[in-house]
Amino acid sequence: MNSRLSVAAVSAVSLVALMGGTTVATAQESDPAPKSCDGVRLTGELPAPAPGQAVSGQITIGPDCEPELGSVRRGPASDRPARTAATATTTATTAAATAAGHQLRGWNEMYDCCNIRMTGLYTVSSWDTADGRVTTAGTTATQQWNREPWDAGWSLTSQTAKDDCATDCAEVNSEAHADFSYQGVFDPTGDWYDNTHHSYVQLKADGTASCRFDVELRHTFVGWNWRYGCE
User: Fold this and answer.
1) Phi, then psi, of 102 in degrees rounded to 5
2) Model confidence at 215: pLDDT above 80
3) What's CA 10's distance to the chain center, in Å?
4) Selection from 212, 208, 134 nearest residue 175 by Cα
């Protein structure tokens, strides 16, 4: 992960950009070892699509180390990457036992410049409704991360998930968090890269829902791209 960015010290800068319902905020910092870009926090918010449909977004770290916003994409749920679909399908078995009626799957993934998924946070929410209320609801979260053959690479360091209500609710707000560290061929110290994923889901009594995602990266690299969505 060698960057051509050659800066001894960079003053603090902030950027806010809006495109396709996505907000991006970055913070430049000094780069003592210019092998990667500076830290960044990316945020995406999406309305839940109709059953059988998927909505997703993508943000890529460009050649100048600035986030490049892609447009929000909509299409059949089957258009999702196979690995993400497999993860959601496995998790759905557990979630379906919690509540029936409506279901929402979310993904929040970070890929490197070679299209290798480094870290990912996935949620499956199920809820039932009656008489203008959410009668039962539950969200499960899973995490995935990439390991290198020599017992190195990304590691899950912490994870949490919670629902603010589970039975007889006006609405349900669920959130999941996962923090990943990296120590391997691109950084043997383990001090440079760290990805923290956040996923938020709101489940409503009328059967609709919304999903919001955040990812915080201690450092990035040109070509890294963040993919998020729900179905």
Assistant:
1) -130, 150
2) yes
3) 28
4) 212
User: Which residues are CB-neighbours of 73 under 8 A, at least 6 positions away?
Assistant: 55, 56, 57, 58, 229
- DSSP letter for 62, please: -
CA pair distance 178, 160, nearest whole angstrom: 7
What pTM was estimated for this model as a whole? 0.79
Q: Note the pLDDT tens digit of each residue in 143-161.
A: 999 999 989 999 999 999 9
Distance CA 220, CA 198 (A): 17
Unique residue bearing structure tokens 């070892």: 33
Among 121, 89, 83, 86, smallest CA distance to 103 is for 89
Phi-psi region of 88 (alpha: psi -120 to 50; beta: other; left: phi over 0): alpha
Q: For residue 137, is pLDDT > 60?
A: yes
d(CA 141, CA 201): 11
In this structure, what DSSP letter does residue 88 have? H
